[in-house]
Amino acid sequence: MSNLPPLKITLCAPRGFCAGVDRAIQIVEMAIEKFGAPVYVRHEIVHNKYVVDSLKAKGAIFVEELDEIGDTKSPVIFSAHGVPKSVPLDAKIRNMFFLDATCPLVTKVHKEAQRLYNQGYDIVLIGHKGHPEVIGTMGQLPNDAISLIETTNDAKNFKPVSSKKLAYVTQTTLSIDDTAQIVEILLKRFPNLKSPQKEDICYATTNRQEAVKQVAANVEALIVVGAPNSSNSKRLVEVAERSGCKKSILLQRANEIDWEFFKNIKTLAISAGASAPETLVDEIIEAFAEHFNIDVNLSVTAVENISFNLPKELRA
């Protein structure tokens, strides 16, 4: 009989890797296998240090810009977050062999922004300034063709060039509730605001937030496994706090656990951002098993079976 204090752990499902992240990692691994090391990756393929370090060990070299790469016949891969149009154009000018690992759901937003622009709309992008996905989406169109709105305050003060033809698109990894508030303000101010044909916030972001909402009020603490530069992971912590679990925290690895923070808890929930591998969730559960007598249960709110095609250059 264990003398350790009891702890009920609820594992949120879905959690962890989404289809876009899975595809992006596969593209890097298959490119190394097919063409040999090194392969170059512009920006972190996904926002997770463990994933990036494991790909480095296999032969991936990560750069922030193409000008860091000399003349090479090695593949150059664009990250899952998407890139401005200028990046593949530059790669073509330099005769680079490149593979695009942009998540197809991000590509959908790019195409939507382009279509709306072609139809004469002024475009609003709801998203976080400086995030690679936002830089990529804004970079699909000429300078100043998209206005960025980050907050409800931005929405209240936004002044479009023309309110007659106004449309919005969003970053795929936002808080559903925050985005809804921003859209509500914009619609009150601009009733003719055109919405995306299909929701831009991706299925994985939506599902992971719903899974956290289901359990947050019923546990004393909640861990989101993910990186501090991962938008969807940070949103999960915010969702957990708003949904009733004030003791919610973002952790990258088990070695970051502050045991004082979890002292005397009897219930814990664990989720993971869309770029966090399941092995890191297992690592954290194992760490708790050394300090508590754990009882692990699953809370399932959706089942995901989505997959995306690989680039034709990598298909058998």
Please give a structural write-up:
The chain has 316 residues and is of the alpha/beta class. It is built from ten helices and twelve strands. The protein has helices spanning 19-35, 49-58, 86-93, 104-118, 132-138, 152-157, 176-189, 203-216, 231-242, 278-289, and strands at residues 6-13, 39-42, 60-63, 76-78, 98-100, 122-126, 146-149, 166-170, 221-225, 248-251, 267-272, 293-300. The strands form three sheets. It has a five-stranded parallel sheet, with helices on both faces. Strands 3-2-4-5 form a four-stranded parallel sheet, with helices on both faces. The termini are far apart. The mean pLDDT is 96.
Quick structural summary:
The protein is built from ten helices and twelve strands.
Level of helix content? Answer: 25-40%
Report the top-level CATH class of the largest domain: Alpha Beta
Main beta sheet: strand number and arrangement? 5 strands, parallel
Strand content: 15-25%
**How far apart lie the N and C ends?**
53 Å
Shape: flat
Low-pLDDT regions: none
Number of domains: 3
Please tally the β strands and state the result.
12
Total helical elements: 10
By CATH, the architecture of the largest domain is named 3-Layer(aba) Sandwich
Task: Assign the structural class, choosing from mainly alpha, mainly beta, alpha/beta, alpha+beta, or little secondary structure.
Answer: alpha/beta
Strand order of the largest sheet: 10-9-11-1-12
Order of helix and strand elements from N to C terminus? EHEHEEHEHEHEHEHHEHEEHE
* Relevant CATH superfamily of the largest domain: 4-hydroxy-3-methylbut-2-enyl diphosphate reductase, catalytic domain
